[in-house]
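Q: I'm building a small set of examples for a reading group on sequence design. Run inverse folding on the following structure and report the sequence directly after it, with nothing in between.
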């Protein structure tokens, strides 16, 4: 069509830290309005600390699946950002935080030595510090589970 695709970021709290879809009616109305305005789609972060919070290797995608279906039904496209870090009100998965309580060096530190509990250190990427697995292995599981859980929407709604 010659139009430049235009994506709008949904609010960061669209999915709550306890894995519920927030403001469903408002989101639904907003999606309809964005479609009428000619927006191509929306972008949403998918937080590892939300979907992988229960235990190592277990993921709960339910809120993000509901959101993806709402977006599909509105006729918009979706770009997920798969976030392997946390932020102030969204921690890393609780099982990772628990490991970090006894092994704080798994967390990122800046040059001044300040530790960031929302991000794993690159120094441990290939070390078996997460229940006998490396962060790279655990990230791979997260990405594989995402692909499996959203396969029916990949390439159509999720671009």
């Amino acid at each position: 069509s010659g139009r430049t695709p235009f994506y709008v970021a949904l609010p960061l709290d669209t999915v709550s830290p306890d894995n519920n879809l927030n403001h469903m009616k408002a989101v639904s109305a907003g999606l309809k309005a964005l479609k009428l305005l000619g927006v191509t789609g929306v972008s949403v972060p998918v937080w590892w600390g939300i979907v992988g919070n229960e235990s190592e290797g277990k993921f709960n995608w339910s809120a993000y699946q509901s959101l993806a279906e709402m977006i599909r039904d509105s006729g918009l496209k979706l770009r997920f950002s798969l976030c392997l870090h946390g932020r102030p009100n969204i921690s890393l998965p609780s099982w990772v935080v628990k490991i970090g309580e006894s092994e704080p060096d798994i967390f990122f530190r800046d040059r001044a030595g300040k530790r960031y509990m929302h991000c794993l250190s690159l120094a441990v990427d290939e070390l078996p510090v997460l229940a006998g697995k490396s962060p790279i292995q655990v990230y791979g599981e997260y990405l594989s589970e995402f692909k499996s859980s959203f396969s029916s929407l990949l390439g159509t709604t999720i671009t």
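The mean pLDDT is 96.
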